[in-house]
Design a protein that fits this description.
By secondary structure, the protein is of the alpha/beta class. The chain contains 39 helices and 35 strands. A hairpin with a 2-residue loop joins strand 34 and strand 35.
């Protein structure tokens, strides 16, 4: 078999030809291959089940080939899911950037120069230096391990891959630009702009999918062949809009009597340009007879919800923030439905009533309908194209509730498209009476009420919906605590819950599905907030319902924009998904499965989530039932060892107990300046004008004071200017406050702890002069400066940092800040003599002259060692803390640049081996057996690493010269399983072979740390005990 040079060089021989007849590949791969074939692609390289690279061979790179390449690139860009296109000849390879928007090659264009705009890399067969770079960055191994995102040599390539230029982002930005331009050119009604854009989107989806034809447009204008021809005339355009309204009976965007008068030919020209070339905020209109940038036959219907939600958020962000609704990405929809509505070959039940109680633009409902259709096809054994059956499946099973009148029409429009997608021919809908879907008795424009999409307040009384018993409730309800509706407030008050939008949706879902299943997205703070009203909700959820599993995706709020941005677009809050039901089964699992990924990068060229086996925790159901449980936060970043260690630390007295014992009452938060809402200002002449702002507080010692007036913001100066009736630049020293704070704590010596972190560390500082501080700072005064210096060392220690990170309701969830009650509840086991010992070390190491310039690492190591001793923590407990602080926590604040994601080195592997050897040998001591560990030389770029455990009469660590790298590379792909688009599970492998155990893990430091050794040893001991 003749293998092409570049295919062999890049190790892409397992790429699947698009002409394949292989029956062993999955249905999804067949679907991708079929589509790629229409693009003109020769081969597809799959990473697991997911297309990672498209490949095509050409004889040379002449103008004809470049024209073909540009056409393929255009289609792949609209497809969105593949970022790289490999085009190769016998002598050269060029790699194209499919995140960059397509180009148009006119006849007079310099084809070579223009196509370089979408090139990432090119290499000739004879260029040995470039061949080396090609292999490092673009080979199969590099694709599978995602080296393009981390390799230093790939920085120039990374800068070219801007995911904000992908089809979804570019289309949304174009629509935002059009909306702005239409407003600028005289259309002031945002609802009219919205209608014009959404009607156009709907018609282009129909047209590109062959659901409209020339005959359809001829009925409006004899000369028109397509929608763009119609847009050339305002009267024809509105005749078409009215035809749509009549056909869809008001379920889509109704035509107001006077709106045509507000729309000009120029306005329609702006819309036309947007959908042909995109909107670039330029007055130049480049229209091409035979080319359009967007191809709605390739763009997935599900993308419509993303386009609409992000577009609406951009043009009316205030309203979206107030309503707490945010777009749900298809990957999360797929994850939820894969769990509760799979559509594999054995799934044949298609009569399942599904409700989305906050359906928005309908993404959950569209995907649910498509899955029910697939289940019907599994049942019948043939493709479903019968309109009456499709209509019955839709009307009998798909239901949604939504308050926003625009969103619910997009939901209807998306469901119509999903229905029409299955027709053959697709123009058949023009001869059928489409069903009413929306039920909105308050809208007089409807020409008949439907019974599927209810425009209602979900939390209000809805007898007609509540009388339907649903089998499955899914969705992404709104969450937030601002601008709550009266029904939300009343519901929360009635049940004693926190005033948080999502809680009534979660609670009321059991009324919709008393015997069914529920899977809803919510904000993670519902699990971690310690207030009694959140605890009461958790008490209901975990004791009165049966929770099966929870996914915690809080890490995704930190995804950089060049990697696709936050999962929830404009949202910054962390999200989770809960799977539960009201009925408690007769046979219950003793555990709740808890998934909490710590990274947002999948190890390939696409962005995604990896859920490693170490991110999956099996939490005891009884432990989860404690409404004040810290377990959700601890298990998010740690494992069983961390849960046990936190429980051990909680057995100590608290910091608050110590302060009370010492009768330290001079403690509390600082003052608050006046605010617009202040009703009763408090005058005070005693608060020191010498002021320590939070941003000037540094660890251990601070001396950068300001005058109290300097703490005012610009708006604050204006507020005080009005109060004192003087110009803002001539304010007297502030003596009026909203709150005066803990005045007794303003006296020296004092200790300050700021609410925020400094370089992701707790920031406690000793102050030796009187000063005031604001309410973002906790202050403690005591006459004994040695006590305060000792406490400063304690509060800045790794133990305190570890404890707070593990139990704080906010750090790693919403805001990186510490609350006073979290400080007061710290474990404390220091006496005055030990505090004096710390203070002595403080005085020896630090003084105002050398503090800021010296390296404090050695000092902090000594401090940590002393504090570990005061708490009588074992070497194992210390390793658990250090693993969390230096290996795990940086995954949050350093992301893809966290050192723990780098390849493991020999010293680190030896340390892991020593720790796991010791743990297992201690366990086996009574049996006269000892553990030995064999390590192997692993290449830096290998995705996996391994060690071998052996058991005998000796305990040693050996280094083997055996070559294992190629086998590990092959094995890596087997460890991934796709749960949903961009969501992957990576299994860990522990292989038992007679007297040997092979531990195989990803080649990253975090999997080979001392903490990882402890967790692995614990798991192995459990498995060994189960074998006995």
């Amino acid at each position: 078999m003749n293998i092409d040079f570049f295919i062999d060089k890049l190790d892409l021989g397992r790429s699947v030809p698009t002409a394949t007849q292989d029956s062993d590949i999955s249905d999804y791969q067949l679907e991708v291959i079929g589509l790629a074939r229409t693009f003109g692609v020769d081969k597809v390289y799959f990473c697991d089940d997911f297309p990672a690279v498209f490949l095509k061979k050409v004889s040379n790179f002449d103008d004809a080939a470049l024209m073909e390449i540009v056409g393929i690139h255009h289609d792949v860009w609209n497809y969105k899911k593949v970022l790289q296109l490999y085009i190769y000849s016998d002598s050269e390879i060029r790699i194209y950037n499919c995140s960059e928007k397509p180009i148009y090659l006119a006849a007079d264009t310099d084809f070579g120069k223009e196509t370089q705009k979408i090139e990432l890399f090119r290499c000739e067969k004879s260029d040995t230096e470039k061949l080396s770079s090609l292999n490092k960055i673009f080979s199969r191994s590099a694709i599978d391990t995602g080296l393009i995102w981390t390799l230093e040599e790939a920085e120039g390539i990374r800068k070219k891959i801007n995911l904000q230029r992908r089809v979804d982002k570019y289309l949304v930005n174009s629509l935002i630009g059009v909306a702005s331009k239409l407003k600028e050119d005289g259309i002031l009604d945002i609802n009219l702009i919205h209608k014009l854009i959404m009607r156009s989107l709907f018609l282009l989806f129909l047209e590109d999918r062959n659901a409209t034809d020339e005959k359809f447009y001829h009925a409006i204008d004899q000369k028109a062949r397509n929608y763009f021809d119609i847009l050339g005339d305002v009267s024809s355009t509105y005749l078409l809009f009215e035809e749509l309204e009549n056909h869809f009976k008001g379920n889509l965007f109704t035509v107001d009597p006077d709106e045509q008068k507000l729309v000009t030919k120029e306005h329609l020209s702006i819309i036309k340009k947007c959908f042909i070339t995109g909107f670039e905020h330029s007055d130049q209109v480049n229209l091409f007879e035979d080319w359009r940038i967007f191809n709605f036959n390739i763009i997935e219907i599900e993308l419509l919800s993303e386009i609409y939600e992000n577009f609406l958020t951009a043009i009316d962000s205030k309203k979206k923030d107030e309503t707490g609704t945010f777009y749900t990405p298809p990957s999360l929809v797929e994850l939820v439905l894969n769990q509760k509505l799979p559509a594999e070959k054995g799934d044949k039940d298609y009569n399942i009533k599904i409700l989305d109680p906050a359906c928005g633009s309908g993404i959950f409902l569209v995907e649910s309908f498509k899955r029910l259709v697939k289940r019907y096809e599994n049942h019948s054994g043939e493709k479903l194209t019968d309109y009456s059956i499709l209509k019955k499946i839709l009307l009998d099973n798909i239901f949604g509730i939504e308050l926003d009148p625009k969103a619910i029409k997009v939901a209807a429009f998306s469901l119509y498209l999903a229905l029409l997608e299955n027709l053959n021919p697709k123009t058949l809908w023009q001869k059928k009476e489409l069903p009413n879907l929306i039920n909105d008795p308050l809208d007089p424009e409807f020409k008949g009420q439907g019974s599927n999409l209810y425009r209602r307040d979900t939390i209000g009384d809805n007898n007609e919906i509540e009388n339907i018993e649903f089998d499955l409730v899914v969705g992404n309800p709104p969450f937030g605590t601002k601008k709550l509706s009266q029904s939300i407030i009343n519901y929360c008050n009635e049940h004693g819950f926190a005033k948080e939008m999502v809680l009534p949706f979660l609670h009321k879902s059991v009324k919709f599905a008393p015997h069914g299943e529920i899977a809803l997205i919510f904000n993670t703070k519902v699990l971690t907030n310690t207030s009694s009203t959140y605890q009461k909700f958790r008490d209901w959820l975990f004791t009165e319902c049966y929770v099966e599993k929870i996914f915690n995706f809080s890490i995704l709020r930190r995804v950089p924009l060049n990697l696709g941005g936050q999962l929830f677009g404009s949202a910054v809050g962390p999200i989770s998904i809960v799977f539960f039901k009201k009925e408690i089964p007769a046979v219950q699992s003793a555990h709740i499965v808890y998934y909490a990924p710590k990274t947002y990068l999948k190890m390939d060229v696409l962005e995604g989530i990896v859920i490693d086996s170490t991110d999956v925790k099996y939490l005891r159901r009884d432990d989860c039932k404690a409404s004040n449980a810290k377990i959700w936060k601890i298990a998010m970043w740690g494992g069983v060892s961390d849960i046990n260690l936190i429980n051990k630390l909680d057995a100590f007295t608290t910091f608050s107990d110590y302060l009370n014992k010492k009768k330290i009452v001079e403690k509390g938060l600082g003052f608050q300046f006046l605010m617009p809402s202040t009703k009763e200002p408090i005058p005070d002449e005693e608060i020191p004008a010498k002021y320590m702002p939070p941003h000037n507080i540094r660890r251990y010692y601070s001396e950068s004071f300001q005058n109290i007036n300097e703490g005012l913001t610009a708006s604050g100066r204006n507020l005080y200017s009005k109060h004192y009736n003087v110009p803002p630049y001539n304010l007297p020293s502030i003596n009026i406050f909203r709150r005066v704070g803990a005045k007794a704590a303003y006296k020296a010596p004092l200790l300050l702890i700021k609410e925020g972190l400094q370089n992701w560390k707790v920031c406690s500082s000793y102050i030796d002069s009187d000063c005031s501080f604001n309410s973002k700072v906790l202050g403690i005064h005591h006459s004994d400066e040695k006590i305060l210096k000792g406490l400063t060392c304690y509060l800045n220690s790794d133990l305190v940092y570890y404890y707070l990170f593990m139990v704080s309701a906010s750090i790693g969830i919403e805001r990186e800040e510490i609350k006073p009650n979290e400080i007061y509840n710290l474990p404390f086991n220091l006496n005055d003599d030990q505090l004096y010992e710390l203070a002595e070390m403080y005085d020896q190491e630090f003084n105002p002259d050398n503090f800021f310039g010296r390296d404090a690492d050695s000092f902090e190591k000594q401090i940590n060692k002393l504090i570990y001793g005061y708490f009588d923590l074992s070497e194992k407990s210390q390793a658990i803390i250090e693993n969390a602080v230096y290996v795990t926590f940086p995954l949050l604040f350093k992301g893809s640049k966290a050192p723990s994601l780098l390849s493991v080195n020999d010293n680190e592997m030896y340390s892991y081996a020593a720790f796991i050897k010791e743990e297992l040998s201690n366990f086996l001591a009574d049996s006269q057996l000892y553990a030995s560990v064999t390590t192997y030389k692993i290449y830096r770029y290998n995705p996996l690493s391994l060690v071998k455990l052996s058991f005998g009469k000796q305990s040693e660590i050996k280094a083997s010269d055996e070559e294992v790298n190629s086998e590990l590379q092959l094995l890596d792909r087997k460890l991934y399983s796709k749960s949903a688009t961009n969501i992957f599970f990576r299994k860990k492998l522990t292989y038992f072979d007679q007297n040997d155990i092979f531990i195989i893990r990803p080649n990253q430091k975090r999997f080979w740390s001392q903490g990882a050794a402890i967790e692995d040893a614990t798991d192995l001991i459990g498995e060994i005990l189960n074998m006995q």
